[in-house]
Amino acid sequence: MATVNLPAVSSALPLTNTSATATKATGSEVQKSFSSFLKESINNVNKAQNESDVLTNKLANGEDVDLSQVMITSQKASVMMSATLEFRNKAVEAYQEMMRMSI
To answer: SS3 string of 20-67?
Structure first.
């Protein structure tokens, strides 16, 4: 069975607890860090979608492309997009829940 390399997930979710040794970050630093993480993640999804489109177009034009590679790339882009949409939905739900809270 082939191993699956998930560098985007492993870099986004480190297995070590760095918060115990790191100094406390300010709110603006955390916001910038989270913002850059989201931007990078969306760019990765966009890149995967573009790679899928390129391979699909090559296959449709009759160029020499491995069908399995086209399907894997397409499925990878689809899964990444689905995960992104689920993340967005959960973020919107959390925001709406906070807005419903009374102070």
So the answer is: CCCCCCCHHHHHHHHHHHHHHHHHHHHHHHHHHHHHHHHHHCCCCCCH
In this structure, how many other beta carbons lie within 10 angstroms of the beta carbon of residue 52? 21
What does each C-alpha distance from 5 to 2, 8, 9, 36, 80 come to in angstroms? 10, 9, 9, 23, 14
Contacts of 42 (CB under 8 A, 6+ apart): 84
State pLDDT tens for residues 37-70.
989 999 999 999 999 999 999 999 999 999 999 9
Query: What are the pLDDT digits (tens) for 73-97?
Result: 999 999 999 999 999 999 999 999 9
Say what the pTM is: 0.67
